[in-house]
Design brief:
About 35% of the residues lie in helices and about 25% in strands. By secondary structure, the chain is of the alpha+beta class. Strands 27, 28, 30, 33 and 34 form a five-stranded mixed sheet that branches. A four-stranded mixed sheet has the order 16-11-8-19. A hairpin with a 5-residue loop joins strand 20 (about 475-480) and strand 21. It is elongated. The protein starts with a helix and ends with a helix. About 30% of the residues are buried.
Amino acid sequence: MDNVPGKLHQLFEYNFLEYTSYVIRERAIPAIDDGLKPVQRRILQTLFNMEDGRFHKVANLVGETMKLHPHGDASIFSALVNLANKGFLIERQGNFGNIFTGDSASAPRYIECRLSPLAKEVLFNKDITEFIDSYDGRMVEPVTLPAKLPLLLLQGAEGIAVGMATKIMPHNFCELLQAQKAVLLDEEFTLYPDFPQGGLVDVSGYEDGNGKIKCRARIRELNEKTIIIDEIPYSTTTQSLTDSIEKAAKAGKIKIISINDYTAEKVEIEIKVARGIYAKDTIKALYAFTDCEVPISPNLTLIKGKTPATSSVREVIEYNTLKLKADLTKELEINLARLEEKLHARLLEQIFIEQRLYKNIEEETSYESIMASVDTALIPFRSELFRDVTEEDVTRLLEIRIKRISRFDINKQDKEIRAIRKDIKAIKISLKDMVAFTIASIDKLLAKYGENYPRKTEIKQFSEVVVRKIALSNLTVGYSRETGFLGHSVKGEEEEDFSVTCSEYDRLFLIYSDGRYKVIPVTDKVFAGTDLKYIGIVPSEQVFNIVYRDGNENFAYVKRFNTPKFILEKEYHLFPEHKRSKILLMSFGEEKYARVNVMPSARAKTNTFHVAFDDYLVKGASAKGKRVSPRVVRRVLTAGPPTEPKKTTQNLSLLTDVEKREE
């Protein structure tokens, strides 16, 4: 009994690994060889088995596919709709849903489909396809299809397995084939995603199939008050897009009057902006606050052989191109063998009839002697044949009817033999230069189908939308000195309480009377203390003018500094901490003045003088500053420019002399 827990653990571990392996390889992750998941491969193989040139009811197709796919009809139907809507391999008839609006397809009994000409040309060749038994042993299914296109990158794929996921971006048909040519010619190439929804894509963070990209809707300004969305980002629908716009409008991030979705075969979403708001500003807000711009993190995970691996676009293209070259070589070799066998049979037939070898068997009495007679008669002609004559060859000759011999056309036979020899020669030439033959095959596909698949997504580098600059100032932050609370849900109770109009993305700059300062995010309610001196939005460039009392010395100092650097919610100090230290006056910008009252002195002519802040250098926030006066400052008030220049000059001269003596 002591070993039971260990055995049970091993049982669970084994079963879980089996399940994990099955989900990864047989359901969620596509193969690098043909770019298909098992359910997609089984759907296409079933369509090929049912192919008669006509459309098939999807319900019938789903039922036939279940003979190969050991899962429910719902998974087959959803995979079929997804595959058909990619627009490459399956022709549709009926309502297969809408990739723009997100509408679902009709019931499978109402819609029909069949293989596209492209699929029939590039997907199937039983001569080079490896087949295995289906799950019940009644049928066979392909391990992979001999695809002549890099379908993995053409269609893209998404899937979630156990412990891993894949998110492969779709790419452009023509660009993929041009990249394959570049691989064969040993040239450089670069590939970027191309989405069926169109839109714009910023690939500056795209790392060859991985990394990060940003997708945007294509938005145009119809007039100052009307915006039209013509194309949507990949992974969105018009429904999800309008929902995100309505949500942003309710949150006060954008101001619109109405939004109408007129999408049918093409995307058309109309937005009317509110009074006092202009379309060009709203477009920036749409990119910042709605799904008009979405980030996507591609993850190129695939099955290579029997193992999952993370790859790159370049590796996939190189692998598919070499596989294409190998498959085309196999096809040529198979065709060559067939043509040589056909030529061998025609030459044997020609020799047998033209040389009248059939007359030698008239006197033979047994089948064995007839066979030996024909075989002996063919010995002088062995050099004209591709291989030795076999028993099957002789049997085939003896099965020729007298009627066919009597109507044998020598000229026609010679013509057919010359045609076969010509085909054999062409194949041998192609086999000597498979690079040129592969490129010619790619060019043929480009010429035949390329114009059907133009690039839909524009590659463009986006300028970063600074949310704080375009956000609407829809919040009013209040401060109650009595309670010490601050936030956009706080209302000031006294006339001297502060209030700031801002957006939720702004940062609040708090300066306290004792010289402390910090920066906090906008919040609904937070305790800030009862001794705030200043509250405002953090300015990018602002000059602060301050007169403060140093509690240690009991002298007043004046200092100027620009908006300081900060870490959010970290507390800093403008001057040394002391219980008597205090800000006496604070102002902002240039051409600011203060009137200073000092303690009376019998030797002084006046106890009041003006301070012009522009006379002082702008330094760092931690600088001590210059002493205002050698006397104790009683009070500092905001003042305008001095009205008596001479007195001010004398005062400033006196102050300068005092400072010189101190220095």
